[in-house]
Design goal:
Arc Repressor Mutant, subunit A; 2 domains; 4-stranded mixed β-sheet
């Protein structure tokens, strides 16, 4: 599904082109957003337009509001047809999450917004297909986690469950696109969490050979293993 198709689908719910484009990015990459991220998307200072957009989402039951310490408000897209409209029907972004996960998702959205020239692989299937097609990486080398369903007891293998941004960018020194991966440290992680991430991705990284890895964290210095 192209971005134009996603925007068109979301406009069908009564949103402008700019609003629909932003909603598509949120649904695919985060599920959560704050007001300043919508401000950045449409290039305005916080004001009536942002408030009207938020209130429209809430009034229509398309989003829920979370209020944290110091009256900090976070909005989550909870309306399932939104996710169907962007081609990610079974997205886990619409589920409720712990505060540390919400912060991580907001940071991921910041990263996506800060890199408009990169092509982001938003869904699990996009990541699998692109790595298999462009780099020839076999599926068994992709980071995965097995879930057992409560009803049937059957095992389901899911890939890239951390949902950290994965992107593709062209390089003048390469004949094929360069993949980029992101580790989001929301301030709750320890060095061992990053080491675990590297272990899960080790097979994929070795198979690709050349790639970018971005450590996106808070004001704290990254673990020694993350430094160049």
């Amino acid at each position: 599904m192209t971005e134009e198709e996603r925007i068109h689908n979301l406009q069908g719910f009564g949103y402008s082109t700019e609003e629909a484009r932003f909603l598509g990015i949120v649904a695919l990459h985060s599920g959560y957003f704050v007001r300043r991220q919508f401000d950045a998307a449409i290039g305005v200072e916080r004001g009536k337009r942002t408030s009207a957009f938020v209130e429209k989402l809430l009034a229509r039951g398309h989003a829920r509001r979370y209020t944290f310490e110091h009256n900090r408000q976070v909005f989550q897209l909870q309306y399932k047809p939104f996710y169907e409209a962007v081609g990610d029907d079974h997205s886990r972004n619409r589920r409720e999450h712990q505060p540390q996960t919400i912060k991580s998702r907001l940071m991921a959205l910041d990263f996506v917004q800060a890199n408009p020239d990169s092509y982001f692989l938003a869904t699990e299937q996009q990541k699998i297909d692109s790595l298999e097609r462009l780099s020839g990486v076999p599926r068994d080398l992709l980071p995965a986690k097995v879930y057992v369903t409560q009803n049937s007891g059957s095992a389901i293998r899911r890939y890239f469950v951390d949902r950290f941004p994965v992107f593709v960018k062209s390089s003048p020194n390469r004949s094929s696109p360069c993949f980029g991966f992101t580790y989001i440290d929301s301030g709750f992680d320890t060095t061992s969490a990053f080491v675990t991430y590297l272990r899960h991705y080790k097979g994929l990284f070795r198979a690709i050979g050349e790639f970018d890895l971005v450590y996106a964290g808070t004001h704290r210095a990254p673990p020694r293993a993350a430094r160049p």
